[in-house]
Amino acid sequence: MRVDKFLKLSRLIKRRTVAKEVASQGRIELNGRPAKASTELEVGDELRIRFGHTLLTIRIDRVTEQVRKGDASSLYTVVNEEKVEQSQAD
């Protein structure tokens, strides 16, 4: 599944177009490497996303084409969530 689609389905980012923008800004890494919106991910992969001053690391637990809103968080496990300083965030 594409990174942008997963982020939308998991409700980590509300719109797929926003997920594409975040990826194009270099704020997403997949298994330690910069990821494009079209990068394919699989179960077990580790995704790092920078939201402003927060760096969120998640592990992909499930990949599915459809998910109910209440079950969206079952697609991933939060591995780490940390605050980063402005100099690291830019």
Automatic annotation (TrEMBL):
Chain ranges passing through the membrane: none
The answer to whether the entry has keyword Protein biosynthesis is: yes
Domain RNA-binding S4 residue range list:
1-68
Against InterPro entries, the record matches this protein to: RqcP (IPR025490), S4_RNA-bd (IPR002942), S4_RNA-bd_sf (IPR036986)
Q: What's in the keyword line of the UniProt record?
A: Protein biosynthesis, RNA-binding, rRNA-binding, Stress response, tRNA-binding
- Assembly description: Associates with stalled 50S ribosomal subunits. Binds to RqcH, 23S rRNA and the P-site tRNA. Does not require RqcH for association with 50S subunits.
Protein name (record) = RQC P-site tRNA stabilizing factor
The organism is Aquisalibacillus elongatus
Gene encoding this chain? rqcP
